[in-house]
Amino acid sequence: MALLDTWRNLAYQTEMDQKTANEFWGSYFTQEKAIYEQILSAPDTVVKGTVKELADKYGVEVLLMAGFLDGINDSLKTPNPIETMEEDTEVSLDYDKEKLYYNMVGCKADWLYELPQWDALLDEETRKALYKKQKLSGTIVKGKKIGRNDPCPCGSGKKYKQCCGKNA
Q1: What is the reported pTM?
Q2: Shortest CA distance to 64 belongs to which of 88, 92, 32?
């Protein structure tokens, strides 16, 4: 079984009670934050190695590193083969700064996108623009509702209820 499947089975198991789930995710988020602090502190260094080497480097379990790689994969310049990943799979953490920040905002991970290391990577204006762009991407704008007695938008000149609204 691939590492990612094992991680997903562990992380999203339905038998986990609320207390256990809170402890598990609390521990994960703390370790994830520590990894991001190290990665963002050296933005010009591209971290590469096997999954096991990276887990050892950041002092986490291999399964937790698989979960971390799953989370950061959308923000990488070249995605890693996470679906088939094993302990000896070579991976890279060459991330796109703006994409990573944007995705952190999208995940509502304020403990990550508010890290002080971002000050050196992206200026405040860029971060505000990315934050706003992400928040607006989830906003649904409804079009103007056509009333039953309004003229039909197809241009026939009939009332909507007598034309296209008949089938709606």
Answers
A1: 0.74
A2: 32
